[in-house]
C-alpha cells in the first residue's frame, strides 16, 4: 500500500497490487478475434473483433439482446466461442475455465451484483484473495485496504445481503479489483442508479486504469455515463459490430442512431439529447 | 470500529468455545443425574452429534444436501469391526478379510483412525466423480452412493457377513469418550469453516458463478470439504460400532439418514451451532414421545400414545420448522453474544463490547 499525507490525514492513494506468491498479471492486451457464439440455431454474436488495452477504458453499448453480456462471457471464460479465438497477451486461451481467466488477471462484475449474501463485505472481497492463493490473513488485510480506498471501510463487517444496491455494486467492483487485475470487465454497473450516483460511479471507473494500470471494458445503458467515461466505444447490434470510435464519432454515427431508433424510443431520445 | 487482531481472534474463538462448553456441561449434568439408561442415551446422542457435525462440514458449507454420508458411517463402523473383533470369530466368519486383519486384534484408536481414513479415501474417489454436479443432481448421486454401500455390504458374505450381525465388538465408548470425539468434531467444523477453503466453499454456496469469477475452483473446495466430512462421519461410525458391540448393515440406511438430516435441518444447516442445537432438540423430542408411547401414569390410569406417534410428530415438527424457520432453529447463525452496533448498520450478531476495541 502506498500512502500519502494530505493535510495530516492519511489517505490511501493506491491499494496493493502484488502479494508474495501471486504472479502479477502482465498481459498487455485482451482480444476477441472474430468470435461467434451460437445457441442452437440462434446467433448471439457473430464475427466480433474487439481489443482491450491496459490503461484504457472501452465502452460496449448496444440495444437489449445485442450480445454484450455474451461477449463478456466469452472474454472471461464463462462461454466458449463457437468460432474465433480469445487472446490474452496474444496467446490463445482455448479450454480455459473462468477461474483460470481470473488468475491470469481478467476480472469481471455481474449485472445482478451476485454478492455472496451470507458473507460479510470484507469476506466477499477476501474470497478473491483466497481464490488467487493468499492466506486468509493476507487476503483480509488487502481487502480492508481496498475497502478503505473505496471508502467502504465502515461497512466491512456488514452482511453483503443487507447492503444498499449502490454499495452492492461497489463491493462487486472491489471483489474484482483485489490484487489489481490486468483487465476489468464491468457489466452494467450503473443500472438503476440516479444521475448523481452514476456520476460518482463514473469517477470511480475513471480512476481505475490509473490506479491499477488495468484496462476496463464498460457495458452500460446510461449513455451519459458511457460518453463521459470512455475513450473509445464499441457498438453491437443483433450480435454484430456496427461501429467503433470515440464518443464524439459514435454520437454522430448514422448506423448507431438507426439501431437505437429501431429499438426503444427513449434510448434514441437520450442519444439525441447527449448529442447537443 | 477497526478491531485489534487479538480482539478479532477472541471474537472468532468465542462461538466454538461457548458451544463446546455447552455440550460438555450438558453431558456432565446428564451423566451425574441420570442412571445407566440415560447414560446410554447420552452416549448415543453424542455419537450422533459427531456424525451430524461431520455431515454439516460438507452440507453446511457447500449448500449441497448429502443423502450418502451414512454410507461413510457404515464404512467406518465395519472397519472398527474388522479391526477389533475376536480373531477366532473373524477367521471363522469373515474369511475374505486380509490375513493381517483376520489374525490380529487392534486397539480402539487404531480402529477409529482406520475407519476415518477408509471413509475419507472412499469420499475422495466418490467426490471426484460426482461433485461436478450441483444442487439436486449432486444430492441424488449421493443417495445412489448410499444404496451402493448398502448393497455391497449386504451381499459381501466373506467380508461383511452379509446381512447377519457382526457380534463381539469390544465395547469401549462411554459418555465421556463420546463427548471427547464430539468436541473434536465441533472444533474441526468451526476451524474448517474459517479456513480459506471453507471461505471459498461458502462463497460458492451463495453464488457459484461469482465464486468462479473470483478464481475459486469449486470442484476442489467441495472435494476438500467432502473428504474431511467423510472422515469425521467415518470416525462416528467406528464409535457407533464400539458403543453397540453389534453391527448389522441395515442400521446404516434410510432411517439413520433421515434422522441425521432432520437434526441438521431442524437446527440450521448453515452453522455448526445449528448442527449441535438440532441434534439435541431432536433427541429430546424423540425421547419425550418414546416415553409417552411407553405410557404415562396419572393417578390410577395409564395414558399411552399409539406406537409410531413419535415418527409422525417428528415429521410434523420438521414441516413446521421448514415453513416458519426455513434456516432452522438457529437461523443458521453461530452462537454469539449480542452487542448494539446500530452505528455501523450491522445486522449480524456482534461480539460483546468488552472484546471489541
UniProtKB/TrEMBL annotation, chain A:
The keyword Transcription regulation does not apply. It comes from the Bacteria. Gene3D superfamilies: P-loop containing nucleotide triphosphate hydrolases. Coiled coil: none annotated. GO terms for cellular component: plasma membrane. Pfam families: ABC_tran (PF00005), BCA_ABC_TP_C (PF12399). One of its GO terms (molecular function) is ATP hydrolysis activity. Residues 30-263 form the ABC transporter domain. Keywords: ATP-binding, Nucleotide-binding, Transport. InterPro entries: AAA+_ATPase, ABC_AA/LPS_Transport, ABC_transporter-like_ATP-bd, BCA_ABC_TP_C, P-loop_NTPase. This is Amino acid/amide ABC transporter ATP-binding protein 1, HAAT family.
Automatic annotation (TrEMBL), chain B:
It is a multi-pass membrane protein. The chain crosses the membrane at residues 12-33, 45-63, 109-129, 136-156, 176-192, 223-245, 312-329. InterPro entries: ABC_transp_permease, LivM-like. It is found in: Cell membrane. CDD domains: TM_PBP1_LivM_like. GO terms for molecular function: branched-chain amino acid transmembrane transporter activity. Coiled coil: none annotated. Pfam families: BPD_transp_2 (PF02653). One of its GO terms (cellular component) is plasma membrane. Keywords: Cell membrane, Membrane, Transmembrane, Transmembrane helix. This is Amino acid/amide ABC transporter membrane protein 2, HAAT family. It comes from Arboricoccus pini.
Amino acid at each position: 500500500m502506498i500512502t500519502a499525507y494530505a493535510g495530516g490525514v492519511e489517505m490511501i492513494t493506491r491499494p496493493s497490487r502484488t502479494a508474495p506468491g501471486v504472479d502479477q498479471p502482465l498481459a498487455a492486451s485482451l482480444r476477441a478475434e472474430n468470435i461467434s457464439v451460437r445457441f442452437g440455431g440462434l446467433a448471439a454474436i457473430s464475427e466480433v473483433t474487439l481489443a482491450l488495452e491496459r490503461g484504457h477504458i472501452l465502452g460496449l453499448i448496444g440495444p437489449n439482446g445485442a450480445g454484450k453480456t455474451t461477449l463478456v462471457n466469452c472474454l472471461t471464460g464463462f462461454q466458449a466461442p463457437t468460432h474465433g479465438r480469445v487472446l490474452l497477451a496474444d496467446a490463445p486461451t482455448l479450454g480455459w475455465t473462468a477461474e483460470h481467466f481470473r488468475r491470469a488477471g481478467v476480472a469481471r462484475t455481474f449485472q445482478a451484483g451476485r454478492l455472496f449474501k451470507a458473507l460479510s463485505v470484507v469476506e466477499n472481497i477476501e474470497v478473491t484473495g483466497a481464490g488467487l492463493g493468499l492466506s486468509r490473513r493476507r487476503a483480509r488485510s488487502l481487502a480492508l485496504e481496498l475497502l478503505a480506498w473505496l471508502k467502504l471501510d465502515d461497512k466491512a463487517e456488514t452482511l453483503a445481503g443487507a447492503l444498499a444496491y449502490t454499495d452492492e455494486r461497489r463491493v462487486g467492483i472491489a471483489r474484482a479489483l483485489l490484487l489489481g487485475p490486468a483487465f476489468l470487465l464491468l457489466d452494467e454497473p450503473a443500472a438503476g442508479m440516479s444521475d448523481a450516483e452514476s456520476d460518482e460511479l463514473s469517477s470511480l471507473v475513471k480512476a481505475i486504469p490509473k490506479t491499477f494500470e488495468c484496462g476496463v471494458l464498460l457495458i452500460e445503458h446510461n449513455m451519459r455515463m458511457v460518453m463521459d467515461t470512455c475513450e473509445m466505444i464499441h457498438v453491437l447490434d443483433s450480435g454484430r459490430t456496427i461501429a467503433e470510435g470515440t464518443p464524439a464519432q459514435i454520437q454522430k454515427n448514422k448506423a448507431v442512431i438507426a439501431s437505437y431508433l429501431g429499438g426503444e424510443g427513449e434510448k434514441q431520445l437520450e442519444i439525441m439529447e447527449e448529442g447537443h | 470500529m477497526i478491531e485489534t487482531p487479538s480482539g478479532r481472534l477472541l471474537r472468532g474463538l468465542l462461538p466454538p468455545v461457548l458451544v463446546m462448553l455447552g455440550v460438555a456441561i450438558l453431558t456432565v449434568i446428564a451423566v451425574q443425574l441420570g442412571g445407566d439408561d440415560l447414560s446410554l442415551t447420552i452416549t448415543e446422542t453424542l455419537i450422533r452429534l459427531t456424525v451430524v457435525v461431520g455431515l454439516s462440514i460438507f452440507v453446511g458449507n457447500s449448500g449441497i444436501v448429502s443423502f450418502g454420508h451414512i454410507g461413510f458411517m457404515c464404512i467406518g463402523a465395519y472397519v472398527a469391526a474388522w479391526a477389533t473383533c475376536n480373531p477366532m470369530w473373524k477367521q471363522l466368519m469373515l474369511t475374505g478379510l486380509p490375513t493381517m486383519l483376520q489374525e490380529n486384534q487392534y486397539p480402539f484408536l487404531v480402529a477409529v483412525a482406520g475407519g476415518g481414513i477408509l471413509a475419507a479415501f472412499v469420499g475422495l474417489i466418490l467426490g471426484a466423480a460426482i461433485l461436478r454436479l450441483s444442487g439436486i443432481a449432486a444430492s441424488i448421486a449421493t443417495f445412489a452412493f448410499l444404496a451402493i454401500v448398502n448393497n455391497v455390504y449386504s451381499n459381501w458374505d466373506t467380508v461383511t457377513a452379509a446381512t447377519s450381525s457382526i457380534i463381539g465388538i469390544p465395547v469401549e465408548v462411554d459418555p465421556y469418550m463420546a463427548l471427547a470425539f464430539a468436541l473434536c468434531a465441533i472444533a474441526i467444523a468451526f476451524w474448517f469453516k474459517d479456513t480459506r477453503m471453507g471461505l471459498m466453499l461458502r462463497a460458492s454456496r451463495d453464488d457459484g458463478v461469482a465464486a468462479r469469477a473470483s478464481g475459486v475452483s469449486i470442484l476442489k473446495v467441495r472435494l476438500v470439504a467432502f473428504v474431511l466430512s467423510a472422515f469425521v462421519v467415518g470416525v462416528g461410525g467406528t464409535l457407533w460400532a464400539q458403543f453397540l458391540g453389534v453391527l448389522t448393515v441395515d442400521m446404516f440406511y434410510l432411517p439413520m439418514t433421515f434422522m441425521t438430516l432432520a437434526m441438521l435441518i431442524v437446527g440450521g444447516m448453515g452453522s455448526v451451532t445449528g448442527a449441535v442445537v438440532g441434534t439435541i432438540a431432536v433427541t429430546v423430542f424423540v425421547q419425550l414421545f418414546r416415553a409417552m408411547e411407553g405410557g404415562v401414569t396419572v393417578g390410577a390410569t395409564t395414558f399411552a400414545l399409539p406406537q409410531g406417534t413419535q415418527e409422525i410428530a417428528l415429521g410434523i415438527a420438521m414441516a413446521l420448522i421448514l415453513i416458519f424457520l426455513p434456516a432452522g432453529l438457529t437461523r443458521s447463525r453461530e452462537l454469539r453474544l449480542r452487542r448494539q452496533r446500530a452505528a455501523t448498520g450491522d445486522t449480524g450478531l456482534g461480539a460483546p463490547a468488552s472484546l471489541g476495541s
